[in-house]
């Protein structure tokens, strides 16, 4: 194709122009000129052609260059932008979205050409419910996210996922999303629960092309339910519709007689104490200060209606001033109500606050007006049980996407939190992707930092989980694990002995590794607990990591380092010194760990974990972290899964100091399975035990670890 450029000379003398194309980063020969020089007569014009060679261009790509015209005296007279865009063949896709009544349904459309490695595109379908797209002929995955009302009650607000995972577009056609076929995506657990987290993942693959994954997390302060449309099974590539729930024991149940009402604890709300009780309820109308001044609500439940005249923070302030036990807000719109969801914590309610949906609120108000004077409250500020559930549907979304797991589909985890100080912790559990390469965490659930509860998870080798627990100054992280159906696992968090502990089988962390001739430490977790978790603290500590070959220091850093080494098989040492100065953590203020390992050139395409022997400890303590003076102490050495050149553990030693390392006693060890056991013999005046353990394997790898004040003594 050719486009002409015309030059105009307004002068009284002819002018000769030398023409050239300035190009950069475009295919050679894409643009050429019909002539390299033109003579423009006085008061006249001259034309030159720029030719674009489409055969050199890639489809749906844009290119640019600059055409320069220079006079014989070397002066640049003009520069003209030149551009070319080669558009592929296009067809028209007319998108139509309808709600359950056949009316227009607006939403957000996600489309991915699955037969090409292209970026997915997102389009807004407006209030007309229609959209025309000009796209390449291909096979697409398409789904529409839309709001739907009234499916789970007159004032319910759900989020719908209307999916068409295989849309073949060979010519102009229509794609219709029909909400009349929606089915509820829900989980029903053996024990009563409420949703705290819901997520949908859609995986779409085609041959060797990059897999497309789209993730949507339900906003529980906006929507009360999730819905999806059943689909036909795909015939090209693969498709998985995955759903993820965290369901917890209901934090607060409100009941009048035999009627229970779903309530939502408001963000940042103070907690009601554990237990069940009946309390008088008073209808305070709009909840203004003037209305509260007229009614006695001291020690009672104050029921108010959400309204624009008196905002929830003002209602809460008035209720607290009047001495109410609980503020119960009734929504006046669609969906759930968390009036504090978008507010800063500084504006939290000064008294416990919860909400009811519009429909449940109207029912309760009607009962109060007909004589109900009290409500039964059942409070679980920290759950005694929770469920982490996941379900994968391969090929299509079924007609019933609900999940009703029975005992033969679940595994039990007995969780024990044993932090040395009381307070609140977070329970977090990641679920791994279908190929186990990455993980997404559910919203954390507050639990007692000293307490026990039960977690139930979806069992099976096709699912993997990764657990995490956190208190304000310390986070612990576990391995990626599958659980057998009907199995019971015991998991303990934050118990001593805390020290550097590495994992090589966690989807969210990387153990010290070698790739080719590079040895790297990617983050040294220095405060792992007795539950075989790796631990990280967020302040009040110092950490120094050093890599040696013999006595030659190769690299040094805090929790990260990297060094290029020779390809030969040589012995190395990784030395880690960690200290922390936290006033409420008297144990493990200082540790010294030295790993000796042998390594040679590794695969250049994959990280190989280093053969660093791990030491786990077991000692029974009270919640203050103190052990009996004659109790058992266990040391369990192990190799990192997947570590290169790891041998069989061949020797273990243990020394104990009861005077912070001034003197040491060599412990007599007896082996029991993978453990080496000894019994403490602490003097009556000692307050702490310091331990120094070593282990070696048959390949020349070793570890020496000293933990100062590893635990206290009763």
Automatic annotation (TrEMBL):
It comes from the Bacteria. Residues 281-364 form the PA domain. InterPro entries: Ig_E-set, PA_dom_sf, PA_domain. SUPFAM superfamilies: E set domains (SSF81296), PA domain (SSF52025). It holds the Pfam family PA. This is PA domain-containing protein. It comes from Kribbella orskensis.
């Amino acid at each position: 194709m050719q486009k002409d450029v015309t030059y105009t000379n307004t002068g009284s003398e002819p002018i000769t122009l030398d023409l050239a194309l300035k190009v950069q980063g475009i295919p050679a020969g894409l643009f050429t000129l019909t002539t390299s020089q033109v003579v423009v007569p006085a008061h006249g014009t001259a034309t030159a052609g720029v030719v674009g060679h489409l055969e050199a261009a890639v489809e749906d790509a844009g290119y640019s260059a600059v055409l320069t015209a220079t006079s014989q005296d070397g002066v640049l007279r003009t520069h003209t932008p030149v551009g070319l865009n080669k558009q592929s063949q296009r067809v028209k896709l007319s998108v139509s979205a309808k709600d359950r009544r056949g009316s227009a349904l607006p939403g957000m459309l996600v489309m991915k050409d699955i037969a090409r490695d292209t970026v997915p595109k997102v389009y807004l379908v407006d209030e007309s419910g229609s959209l025309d797209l000009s796209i390449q002929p291909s096979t697409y995955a398409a789904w529409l996210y839309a709001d739907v009302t009234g499916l789970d009650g007159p004032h319910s607000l759900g989020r719908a996922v209307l999916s068409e995972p295989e849309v073949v577009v060979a010519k102009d056609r229509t794609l219709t999303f029909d909400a009349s076929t929606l089915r509820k995506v829900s989980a029903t657990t053996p024990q009563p629960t409420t949703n705290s987290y819901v997520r949908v993942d859609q995986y779409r693959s085609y041959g060797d092309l990059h897999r497309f994954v789209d993730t949507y997390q339900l906003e529980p302060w906006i929507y009360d339910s999730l819905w999806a449309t059943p689909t036909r099974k795909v015939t090209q590539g693969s498709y998985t519709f995955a759903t993820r729930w965290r369901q917890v024991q209901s934090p607060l149940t409100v009941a009048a007689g035999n009627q229970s009402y779903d309530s939502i604890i408001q963000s940042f709300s103070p907690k009601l104490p554990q237990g069940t009780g009946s309390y008088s309820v008073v209808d305070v109308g709009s909840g203004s200060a003037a209305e509260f001044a007229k009614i006695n609500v001291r020690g009672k439940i104050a029921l108010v209606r959400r309204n624009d005249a008196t905002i929830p923070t003002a209602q809460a302030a008035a209720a607290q001033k009047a001495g109410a036990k609980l503020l119960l807000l009734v929504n006046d719109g669609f969906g759930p109500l968390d009036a504090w969801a978008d507010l800063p914590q500084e504006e939290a309610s000064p008294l416990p606050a919860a909400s009811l949906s519009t429909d449940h609120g109207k029912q309760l108000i009607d009962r109060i007006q007909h004589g109900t004077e009290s409500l039964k409250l059942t409070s679980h500020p920290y759950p005694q049980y929770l469920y982490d559930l996941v379900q994968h549907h391969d090929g299509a979304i079924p007609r019933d996407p609900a999940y009703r797991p029975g005992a033969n589909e679940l595994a039990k985890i007995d969780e024990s939190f044993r932090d040395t100080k009381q307070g609140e912790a977070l329970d977090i559990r990641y679920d791994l992707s279908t190929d186990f390469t990455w993980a997404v965490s559910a919203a954390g659930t507050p639990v007692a930092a000293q307490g026990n509860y039960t977690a139930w998870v979806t069992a099976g080798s096709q699912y993997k989980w990764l657990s995490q627990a956190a208190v304000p100054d310390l986070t612990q992280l576990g391995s990626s694990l599958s659980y057998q159906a009907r199995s019971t696992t015991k998991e303990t968090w934050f118990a001593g002995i805390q020290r550097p502990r590495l994992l090589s089988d966690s989807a969210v962390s990387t153990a010290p590794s070698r790739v080719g001739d590079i040895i790297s430490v990617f983050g040294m977790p220095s405060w792992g607990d007795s539950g075989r978790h790796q631990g990280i603290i967020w302040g009040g500590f110092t950490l120094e990591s050093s890599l040696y070959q013999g006595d030659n220091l190769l690299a040094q850093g805090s929790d990260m380092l990297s060094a290029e080494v020779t390809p030969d098989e040589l012995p190395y040492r990784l030395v880690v010194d960690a200290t922390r100065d936290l006033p409420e953590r008297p144990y493990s203020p200082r540790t010294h760990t030295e790993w000796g390992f042998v390594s040679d050139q590794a695969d250049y395409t994959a990280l190989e974990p280093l053969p660093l022997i791990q030491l786990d400890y077991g000692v029974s303590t009270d919640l203050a972290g103190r052990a009996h003076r004659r109790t058992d102490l266990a040391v369990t050495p192990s190799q990192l899964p997947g570590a290169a050149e790891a041998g069989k553990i061949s020797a273990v030693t243990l020394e104990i100091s009861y005077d912070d390392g001034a003197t040491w006693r060599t412990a007599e060890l007896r082996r029991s399975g993978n453990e080496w056991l000894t019994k403490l013999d602490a003097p009556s005046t000692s307050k702490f035990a310091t331990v120094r353990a070593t282990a070696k394997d048959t390949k020349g790898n070793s570890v020496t670890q000293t933990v100062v004040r590893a635990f206290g003594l009763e």
